[in-house]
Design goal:
Elements: H1 4-12, H2 18-37, H3 48-63, H4 65-72, H5 80-83, H6 87-94, E1 99-107, E2 110-120, E3 123-131, E4 139-146, E5 157-165, E6 168-176, E7 185-195, E8 198-209, E9 214-224, E10 229-238, E11 243-252, E12 259-266, E13 271-272, E14 276-285, E15 288-297, E16 305-313, E17 319-322, E18 329-332, E19 339-348, E20 351-358, H7 368-378, E21 379-383, E22 396-402, E23 407-413, E24 421-425, H8 428-433, E25 436-437, E26 441-444
Length: 446
């Protein structure tokens, strides 16, 4: 596994493709416009800057020379699922379980045809083709929307890359079925909102038929009394080419931004990748916040037992300290052993210098680079009246005082009165990256 330092070095070397950046901006702009039109905001736990970085990294991986060369060597006809790295579609295709479609929508001289679709347990996939574009590029992008942009569905609008195949482009969509019930036969509304640079509204009502699946009732729970939360594994859905773990998590009603994450392995300890994790229902009932979720493994599992290691990523609000506060002063998380203790602060000629220690020197298994980055980006001086607005940190320098003790010194340049500034400590960054581990669970698959 790549370590944090290697991630940072790789990140610095990334050249961001400009057309991909434009598409990222386009989907962000579209979502912002949709939010303005809707009165109810989408319920979603997201770190905005991290999401944008993830989008850019994803696009970069699609557009890298190595990837493009590999794609160019794969003839798309008969190999669409392999070309788009869809293991579920590839397995179902080999079993003859993919449904062929011939539905077309045309606008502005551009035709989109839905070619194939599958619905396996809780996962939906589709292949489509586009004709009539003026592009000669090897890849172009489209922005699509499912279920009419339903505010209760996470990521209801997405960008998809299409690969040139002769005179047409081939695209691929895969998403978890977002409703609580899994109907035998249904349709999902799908609309393409742009193809390349051309905006439009190519609409489909795509028919899907559920493939036979098996449901294993589980009824196992793990509880953390300190957090006052419980995780209950409800069932395991075994499709023809996928496996889904259904769970219910309950939290105190004031902790609505906590979320569960599952790691999986087989009975011998071999890791099993959980590729998709999403909530299908969220809300308050009987004074508790309840989340019903699904974790999806993109393969069918047949082992006797599945070992689950649950984690909880806790939400932690920002905390603040005045530049004139009596020192030393310790800022601590109420639910985890994370802290920042500021023991020295000086203001002189427009510069603020303060010394501090993170977690009393405890690393919790993370390397020093992680904490150096945390010190630089999450313990910052901000304008008091804009303390809740996140942007690039003010000009500053972060020095290491004692690496083994996680002691640092930060120096900031400020303009105006020191009363206009405040230190913001984002312990939530630690909570998000160092989740709380719950007891391991052994889940039967038969």
């Amino acid at each position: 596994m790549m370590k944090e330092k290697e991630y940072l070095e790789a990140y610095k070397d990334i050249e961001v493709p400009q057309d991909s950046l434009k598409q990222a901006i386009k989907v962000g702009k579209y979502r912002a416009q949709q939010k303005k039109r809707k009165s109810q905001p989408r319920i979603k736990s997201v770190v905005i800057l991290s999401s944008v970085a993830a989008i850019i990294l994803l696009f970069t991986s699609f557009l890298s020379p190595t990837f493009s060369q590999a794609m160019a060597q794969i003839p798309l006809i008969g190999n669409v699922y392999a070309a788009f790295n869809d293991s579920v579609g590839r397995s179902l295709q080999s079993q003859g379980l993919v449904t062929e479609l011939h539905e077309t929508s045309t606008q502005h001289g551009i035709g989109i045809e839905m070619n194939e679709v599958y619905y396996d347990g809780t996962i939906v996939g589709a292949v489509f083709s586009v004709t009539g574009t003026d592009s000669r590029e090897e890849q172009i992008q489209a922005l699509y929307e499912i279920f009419d942009g339903d505010e209760n569905i996470s990521e209801s609008q997405e960008l998809v890359h299409m690969k040139k195949d002769g005179e047409r482009y081939i695209g691929h969509i895969q998403f978890p079925y977002p409703q609580k019930e899994l109907p035998k036969e249904t349709t999902f509304p799908l609309a393409f909102l742009s193809v390349g640079e051309q905006e439009g509204n190519w609409k489909f009502d795509v028919p899907i038929k559920q493939l036979p699946y098996e449901t294993v009732k589980v009824n196992k729970s793990v509880t953390d009394e300190k957090l006052d939360m419980q995780l209950h594994i409800d069932s395991v859905i075994k499709g023809k080419a996928s496996t889904t773990i259904e769970y219910t998590a309950t939290f105190p009603k004031d902790e609505q931004h906590d979320f569960v994450e599952l790691n999986a392995s087989d009975y011998s300890g071999k890791p099993i990748e959980i590729s998709i994790d999403h909530s299908i229902q969220r809300g308050v009932a009987d004074g508790r916040f309840i989340v019903k979720g699904r974790s999806i493994i993109l393969e069918r599992l047949n082992e006797d037992d599945l070992i689950l290691q649950p984690f909880v990523r806790l939400s932690t609000p920002d905390q603040f300290i005045s530049l004139k506060h009596k020192l030393p002063f310790k800022i601590a998380s109420k639910r985890q052993a994370f802290s920042v203790e500021i023991d020295k602060l000086e203001v002189h000629k427009g510069k603020v210098t303060f010394d501090y220690q993170i977690n009393q020197g405890e690393t919790f298994g993370r390397d020093f680079t992680f904490y150096k980055d945390f010190a630089k980006n999450d313990i910052t001086i901000v304008e008091k009246e804009r303390k809740d607005i996140y942007k690039a940190p003010m000009k500053h320098k972060t020095e290491v005082i004692d690496q083994g003790a996680l002691r640092f010194r930060s120096t900031y340049e400020i303009k105006g009165d020191e009363d206009d500034y405040i230190i913001r400590v984002n312990l939530g960054s630690l909570s998000a990256n160092i989740p709380l581990q719950l007891d391991e669970m052994k889940i039967p698959l038969k």
